[in-house]
Design goal:
Layout lengths: L8 H10 L5 H8 L3 H10 L2 H56 L3 H26 L18 H13 L3 H4 L1
Length: 170
């Protein structure tokens, strides 16, 4: 009758396959047996071939994951570029709206301003989403810490709208 081995062969095989730093000799030392017994079992079960196949599969998996990460990074970079171009276009449209306003084309200026605002919002929201930043809050949720002269200016504009003009008095 054969002698019972003190080696956990499943564990020894896993150690050999998954970590290329371990040789038959080092595994034999870990389990307290001779190198010959580990080598005999490893050769019989084709551990070196299995190690090579495992290493190739692991490498392929890592490379494919790396490729996916690179693809995502490229897509994100492209999207950020696109959203920033939208913001630049919106800035040009704001200038056009201002020119239309100065020419007295008020309805056209209002429509152009709406288009510029919509484009800018899409660009900003898209960029923030790609960058993983929190979404933009709605204007009515924003409370400025220091409104500066803007509140006074808004009040003056509101008063001027309520005052009758000379055309209305005639």
């Amino acid at each position: 009758m054969g002698r019972k081995s003190s080696v956990n062969w499943v564990q020894a095989r896993e150690l050999y396959l998954k970590d290329s730093r371990y040789s038959y000799f080092e595994i034999a030392e870990i389990f307290g047996v001779s190198k010959a017994s580990i080598q005999k079992r490893g050769t019989k079960e084709k551990w070196p071939e299995q190690r090579k196949a495992y290493s190739n599969a692991t490498l392929s998996k890592k490379l494919s994951m790396l490729s996916i990460d690179v693809d995502v990074a490229e897509v994100n970079t492209r999207h950020i570029k696109d959203f920033r171009m939208m913001q630049a276009m919106a800035s040009r449209i704001f200038i056009k709206a201002w020119e239309e306003y100065n020419e007295g084309k008020l309805k056209k200026a209002a429509l152009t301003l709406k288009r510029a605002s919509d484009t800018m919002i899409i660009g900003i929201k898209g960029e923030r989403k790609v960058l993983g930043l929190p979404s933009v809050r709605r204007f009515n949720e924003m409370k400025p810490k220091d409104p500066g002269p803007w509140i006074e200016l808004a009040k003056e504009i509101e008063k001027s709208r309520q005052r009758p003009t000379t055309k209305n008095q005639e």
